[in-house]
Amino acid sequence: MSEYLVSDSIFKFHGEIPIPPDKSISHRAVILSTFNKEMTKINNLLLSDDVKTTMYSVGAIGVMFAENNGKIFTRGTGIREYIQSPETIDCRNSGTTARLLTGLLSGQKFSTRLDGDESLKKRPMDRVKEPLEEIGAKIETNNGRMPVDIFPSEIKGGSIDLSSPSAQVKSAIILAALSGNGELKINIDKVTRDHTEIMLSYFTENIIIEKNCLTVIPDPKIITDQIEIPNDPSSAAFFIVGALINDNSDILLKDICINPTRIKFIEILKNMGANILMNNERNVSGELVADINVKSSTLKGIEISESEIPLIIDEIPILSLAMCLAEGESNIYGATELRFKESDRINSIISELSKLGANISENSDNIKIVGKEALTYGEVNSHNDHRIAMMLAIASTKCIKDVKILNPDCVKISFPQFFEVFEKYGRNS
Fold first, then answer.
1. Which domain holds residue 47?
2. Is residue 82 a contact partner of residue 66, using CB atoms and an 8 Å limit?
3. Is 222 a domain residue?
């Protein structure tokens, strides 16, 4: 599908909307299952393009997969018994795959080359390379970009200070340390998503989690053979905002991950006036999960500080749309990290929402938005960024005329059925 046309300007989101499994947790479930030489059952794995890339990548180093009744079964090799891929491992468009595998393969006895598509080649890899080198890894990049060459090395124990706001960098260090020659303490300066350490503590005995410090113990000892994936709050965010901004909407989203590092956007929306309730809270494979009810609401402007950015990095596109339709002015400060996603998201957000008549501008990585009651119409482009494509679809529900979205197929990266769900649960019928 090269384009998607939204021609019905009257929308009402309703019913129990199905949300796909969590992408971040799915990546990590696939990678951690490689530690288990026996069978691991993964329930509710997201089979999106990005996660399939991770599956392909670990398959290239000896991991086997099977599917039965919607469940994925893996048989790993153990972290010190991966096999050398005879070819370059193609990480395609998945930055998560590239960064996590750089860590996973840093302590191996063989060399590996990781590469990707043209989009991935634009994304920085030195932010992963440099801390890994600090603990003994031998890595070369192409001027800080892919391809990445990983050479045999010994990962050292001891300690490392991590100031990066990226959960992927932290995860890469954890994965490298698991094949190291001693315990590694990771001192953490900034709060980031913590799915890797949560799943590792659920799946093995090889991590000690303390405030501002993780201790990673080499050679994973497996303590369970099953992993359950909750549903993705970042994917849910699009329909949450869709329901908030469209009159008479009332939706239920079930089994959503409510890890505190993932639902900052809900807190922000509530502070804007959103009617959002969480019920039936419970624990699934170490992660907090709940059912979320959302109803139409009148939103007001808000300020988002630089310190909040790491916790809403995937939700800023849809939050920006919410601010475009809120009363008053909103500001997002210090959003530099958005430049290093599937697209330069600061540019993508501003350029595409401006085409739809939004009052939005940028100044030195800060975004200023003045709210309006409705948007206009026009032709917009996803920039091959799944979160931009989905944000534009939700934006179209508040446009006075038709909206044509170019390059919408990128939603397959995280939410393959997005447009089908959008049509079924969004049309005012």
1. 23-217
2. no
3. no
Tell me: the pLDDT tens digits for 317-360?
A: 999 999 999 999 999 999 888 887 888 899 999 999 999 999 99
Are 122 and 61 in the same domain? yes
Q: Let me know whether 385 and 274 are in one domain.
A: yes
Tell me how far the alpha carbon of residue 93 is from its chain's centroid: 13
Answer yes or no: are the C-beta atoms of 250 and 275 closer than 8 Å.
no
Residues 71, 27, single domain; the answer is yes
Q: Quick check: pTM over 0.70?
A: yes
Q: Helix (H, G, I), strand (E, B), or coil: what is residue 289?
A: strand
List own/partner pairs for 58-62 with CB under 8 A and 24 or more apart. Answer: 58/30, 58/31, 58/34, 58/101, 60/85, 60/87, 60/89, 61/34, 61/85, 61/89, 61/105, 61/112
Q: Given 167, 192, 217, which residue is the final one in a domain?
A: 217
Within this chain, do residues 178 and 313 fall inside the same structural domain, yes or no? no
327-333-337-340 Cα dihedral, nearest 10 degrees? 60
Active centre residues (catalytic): 314
Judge if the upstream peptide bond of residue 147 is cis by omega within 30 degrees of 0. yes
Q: Could you give the angle at the alpha carbon of 308 between the alpha carbons of 305 and 313, nearest 5°?
A: 115
- Residue 428's pLDDT band (boundaries 50, 70, 90)? low
Which of 217, 251, 267 is the last residue before a domain boundary?
A: 217
Same domain, 152 and 165: yes
pLDDT tens digits for 177-215?
A: 999 999 999 999 888 899 999 999 999 999 999 989 999
